[in-house]
Amino acid sequence: MTDAMTDILRAALLGALQGATEFLPVSSSGHLIIVPELLGWPPPSLAFHVASHLATMLAVVAYFRRDWLRMAQGAIKGLAAGAPWRHPDGMLLTMLVVASIPAAAAGLLLQEPMERALVETSRSAARGAAAMLLVTSALLWTSDRAATRRASALDGAVTWRQAAAVGLAQACAILPGISRSGATIAAGLLTGLSRSDATRFSFLLGTPIVFGASLIELAALVAEPPARGAIAPLAAGMLAAGIVGYGAIAWLLAYVRSRSLRPFVLYTALAGLAALGLLARP
Fold first, then answer.
1. What predicted TM-score, i.e. pTM, was given to this entire model?
2. CB 263 within 8 A of CB 137
3. Does pLDDT of 115 surpass 60?
């Protein structure tokens, strides 16, 4: 296999990994730091992170396109009445804005060190991400025990307190190894949302934060554009991330309607422990 084909295949595999772990509660950043380190691959470039983030953003926008349209229409109707938050769909959009503020602030403050952590990974950084997978496991286990099986449609019933808690959890997930979806779903469950509603709110909340992260990374990429030979691998990674990400959203939303998060509790615990063991070797 030629070097070019190897790069394309590697990018496609990492793109698929990004697409799945961005939405499943297992930490995409943790996997993209740990897996290349264990396999001896070079860390994904900044261009790869931009492309894969754009792909997962497009996946979540495509899946929830009707929700976003409905929320926009609700906000317009609410504005016409003088209070956008009084319309249920406008209220949901307001709660998403509230929940986005902590992560946006954290991202702006920690932009440079986070970018370095993603593109200049080391064995110590991989160990740190593996340890944070254990934190993700603990969060999922604690919240799943408190979860209710109440089945209800997400119609704007998220409260200010719930939105603030989910937003703070999303800000904490800037640390590699702490799953963004896992932390936000856990916060939703601990504040009284059902598994289905907590997961849907988490995914909707992922749209602005992934969009913001993509814009920040894109600005850095403009200053240092990728080489021409990197275009095909980037396209492969982006396509894989988008397709797998869309499937992961649909699968998890169907899964949580009737099942617990225990498999993800077990997976993140075992993955964290296994990675720590493997990374301890010289």
1. 0.88
2. no
3. no
